[in-house]
Structure formats: structure tokens, C-alpha cells
Design brief:
Elements (H helix, E strand, L loop, with lengths): L4 H11 L19 E5 L2 E4 L4 E4 L14 H12 L11 H13 L5 E5 L2 H16 L3 E5 L18 H4 L19 H4 L2 E4 L4 H10 L2 E6 L15 H12 L2 E5 L11 H6 L5 E4 L10 E5 L1 H4 L21 H15 L4 H24 L4 E5 L2 E5 L8 H7 L2 H13 L2 E2 L8 E2 L6 H17 L1
Parallel strand pairs: 3-13, 5-6, 5-7, 7-8, 8-9
Antiparallel strand pairs: 1-2, 2-3, 4-10, 9-10, 11-12, 12-14
Helix pairs in contact: 2-11, 3-11, 7-8, 12-15, 14-15
The structure holds pyridoxal-5'-phosphate.
Length: 440
């Protein structure tokens, strides 16, 4: 446990004014550390400890904390007197939307919001509007935000989930109280990588939309099987539902065109956030013009309401423009660099795991990786929960924190490399991993 009396004192103080002492209870985790600074690949806590960061605040910091180019863009718009006007369009929002359309070749039109949850909310509302249907399909083990339709079936304990079902659906198992019963009957969680279950649901309910992360990244890194995303595309065409890729974590992080461009599969709508603005609150929903035009439908009764006082606030918009500019620089050189770091850490961790004789697989997509203590790469949450040694995973993460390496200390939480990480950071991490393995 790192020395943390100052962190504990701050938490104690905040408990008097904030429920649990933390805004967002998923940030409350042991060891209780209060971070006071983040620069590049490093985090610094209130007690003067520093860490090489692989949590990256749940993944937005693809360029690293406080990237100087992004910071400069933010300071510049504020110095120039840009404000939030709430009337009319702005050149900044036009510039960002245009850049996004350049980066993601299949999209033609963009709307900007503040958070991924808002974006997934709007994507589902759009799907319901255009299809005139209410039911949606979500992935067991996927995360698409905190709102009523999708706050379910994430890391559900097997005891609650019951035996594997296929083809078929799992019950809606909320991850929040306060979700109306009526919502639960409209949402159908299925196994990732299971096309038969999607077909099964479509044959029974009028499905408006299916939302999925193209690679599940809230339970580590669970890849689609070859043909799975294409199979979803075909089912969407056959059954007439809107295919929504939740690229909040994958978008701009694995390629400028997101995972859709890597897979070569085009959804109807995609949502972005996180890496789009390198840590600033910016999210987007994007797609083909005919679908996106429902947000400005000439018939008021058909129009999908998308409003928000802070939408396209100049600070996150400037941050997003600067981020996308950096990502597109030199033909996407940053992706090649981070892929090199990804290969280096994967090889290093693999060697340490083999040396220790630990049954494990490393799943990785570019900058995102996860070590699973099981003998095969998981295909879905049920598979993962049935085979992964979660206790060993969490023990190891705490050992790493002891050694100045911050892997979020909750089983299967994905690790993120940023462009600010160095080869020396990676090598130090691998050495600490080897030592931690010996201890656990
Ligand atoms: C894939 C995915 N979708 C949506 C969200 C929700 O985004 P936000 O936390 O910005 O509301 C998240 C957040 O972790 C996410 O990982």
C-alpha cells in the first residue's frame, strides 16, 4: 500500500460534502489515492508518490495527460475571448465536425455532445425514431453509459447471470437502482460474438437498434470473432434495425476511422467520446446524412430532440480539434508509435508470465491491453467470468501500484498506453510486473 495519509485526509474531508466522498462511485477504489497532477504518462498523488499511468482516466488520454498541443489550443481560445453563446452555430463546431468527417471516411454528418452516455442515449432515440420500434439489443459485458436503457449486465456475477444461454437473451440485470420496470422489458442483453442470439431476439421483438462496442473494452479487450461484426451488419439489413457502434472507447484511439475502419464494417450510426478530445468532455454521434438529418427533421413531430446548454463548448471543442489534428499528423504516425509500445509491453509481459509459469493470455488492440488469467482469450463475459482468476488479477494490480505502476485495481479493467509513454516506461513496467508476479 503506498504511503497515503494526505490522500485519506482529503477523502475524509470530501465525505462530509459528497456521498462516498467521490463524484462517480466507480472511482472509489482501494488503495485510496488522491491524484493531484497528471503529466504525460505520469500521475502524482497528494502524498508525493508518482506512478506510470495505465488507467488513463478510463481511457481518454490517448496523447497523454496535459498534451502541450491540446493545452495550447485550449488556452488560445480562452485568450481569444471565445465563450458559450447558446445561439447560432460556431466556426469551432463546424471545424470539428468537418475534421471528424475527414478522419472517419464513412460518416457524413456529426452532432456534438458532452459525454458518451449522452451520445449513446441519442443514438438509441434516433434508432427508435427512424424505425418506429422500441426494443433494443445490448451486449452482456458491454458498457454504453449510465442511462436507463443500457445500465445493465456489466460484469454481472455468474450467480446472478445463471447458465450460459444461446440462442437467447439474459434477463435485464440493472447496475443501478431506479430503472423503471417498463424500460427493462424493452432491452435484450445477449452474448457478444453470438449472432444466433441476435437473430433469436429479432424474430421475437420489433428491434429498433442494436448497440455494441465493436471490441468490448469495459471487461478488458474482448475481440469480435472474424465475421461477427459483418454478421451484425447483415442482420441489421435483414431485420431493419439500426446498427450502432459504440466507439466511445475505440474511436480515434485505434485508428482515425475507429474500429469500424479496422474491421471494414460500416454501422448506421457511431458514437465517439474519450480519445476524441484527449480528456476534455466532448462526445459525438455521427452517421450518414439521411439518418443524422432526423436531428433537424423538417416535420417537428419526427424531429429527434438533441439539445444541451454546453454542447460544443469552446474549451472541449478546441481540445478536440487539436487532438484530431495531432492524430492525423504525419499520416497517423502516432498510431504506429503506440502500436510499437503495445508490442513491446505485450512481449515483455508474456515473457514474465512464461517465466513464472502462469496460465494466462494477453489480449491487445493497439494501445489497449488486458492480461487474463485463463487459458484462452475470452469471447464474451460469460466465458470470462467462468474462467478468469479475478482474485489473482486484483492482487497483481495492487502489487503493481506498490511499485509505482497504476493499473486500475479492479479485475479485467483495461490498461491504456498513451503516446506520451516511453520505451523506458514500458521496460520499467515489465520489470515491476515480473517482481509482482513473484510476490503473488
Ligand atoms: C464504450 C463506452 N460507451 C459509453 C461510455 C459512457 O461515456 P461517459 O462516461 O462519457 O458518459 C463509456 C464510458 O466508459 C464507454 O466505455
Amino acid at each position: 500500500m503506498p504511503n497515503n495519509p494526505k490522500s485519506l485526509a482529503i477523502l475524509e474531508h470530501n465525505r462530509r460534502f459528497i456521498p462516498g466522498g467521490v463524484v462517480s462511485i466507480n472511482r472509489h477504489i482501494a488503495p485510496e489515492l488522491v491524484f493531484v497532477r497528471g503529466m504525460g504518462s505520469r500521475l502524482f498523488d497528494a502524498d508525493g508518490n508518482s506512478y506510470i499511468d495505465y488507467h488513463g482516466a478510463f481511457a481518454p488520454h490517448f496523447l497523454g495527460h496535459n498534451d502541450p498541443y491540446v493545452t495550447e489550443a485550449v488556452v488560445r481560445v480562452l485568450r481569444d475571448g471565445a465563450s458559450l453563446y447558446g445561439s447560432g452555430t460556431t466556426t469551432l463546431e463546424g471545424r470539428l465536425a468537418e475534421l471528424m468527417c475527414q478522419a472517419v471516411p464513412w460518416i457524413e454528418s456529426v452532432q456534438l455532445l458532452n459525454t458518451g452516455s449522452e451520445a449513446t442515449y441519442q443514438a438509441l432515440r434516433l434508432a427508435r425514431a427512424v424505425t418506429g420500434r422500441d426494443h433494443i439489443v445490448v451486449m452482456q459485458g458491454g458498457y454504453n453509459g449510465w442511462h436507463n436503457d443500457v445500465a445493465c449486465n456489466l460484469m454481472t456475477p455468474l450467480a446472478a447471470l445463471g447458465p450460459r444461454v444461446s440462442p437467447g437473451e439474459y434477463p435485464f440485470l440493472p447496475i443501478s437502482s431506479g430503472i423503471p420496470e417498463a424500460h427493462r422489458t424493452l432491452v435484450h442483453p445477449v452474448n457478444f460474438n453470438d449472432l444466433d442470439s441476435v437473430a433469436h431476439v429479432c424474430e421475437r421483438y420489433p428491434v429498433a437498434g442494436l448497440i455494441t462496442e465493436p471490441v468490448l473494452q469495459n471487461i478488458g479487450v474482448v475481440h469480435p470473432k472474424p465475421g461477427y461484426l459483418d454478421g451484425l451488419r447483415k442482420l441489421a439489413d435483414k431485420h431493419g434495425f439500426v446498427l450502432i457502434f459504440d466507439e466511445v472507447k475505440t474511436g480515434f484511439r485505434h485508428a482515425p476511422g475507429g474500429y469500424a475502419s479496422i474491421a471494414g464494417v460500416t454501422p448506421d450510426v457511431a458514437v465517439y467520446g474519450k480519445a476524441l478530445a484527449n480528456g476534455y468532455p466532448m462526445a459525438a454521434i455521427a452517421g450518414k446524412r439521411d439518418l443524422m438529418n432526423w436531428f433537424a427533421h423538417p416535420e417537428a413531430s419526427k424531429r429527434v430532440l438533441l439539445a444541451g446548454t454546453y454542447n460544443a463548448h469552446p474549451v472541449p471543442t478546441a481540445a478536440a480539434i487539436a487532438t484530431v489534428e495531432r492524430l492525423l499528423e504525419n499520416g497517423g504516425e502516432v498510431y504506429r508509435r503506440v502500436e510499437g509500445l503495445g508490442q513491446r509491453i505485450e512481449a515483455g509481459l508474456r515473457a514474465e508470465l512464461d517465466r513464472a509459469g502462469v496460465r494466462s493470455v494477453i489480449a491487445r488492440q493497439g494501445s489497449a491491453f488486458c492480461v487474463y488469467f485463463m487459458d484462452h482469450a475470452p469471447v464474451d463475459w460469460h466465458d470470462l467470468a467462468s474462467h478468469h482468476d479475478a482474485a489473482l488479477d486484483e492482487k497483481l494490480r495492487r502489487e503493481l501500484i506498490e511499485r509505482g505502476i497504476y493499473w486500475f485495481p479492479l479485475q479485467t479493467k483495461q490498461c491504456s498506453i498513451s503516446a506520451a509513454h516511453s520505451e523506458a516506461d514500458i521496460d520499467r513496467t515489465v520489470a515491476a510486473f515480473g517482481e509482482s508476479l513473484k510476490t503473488v
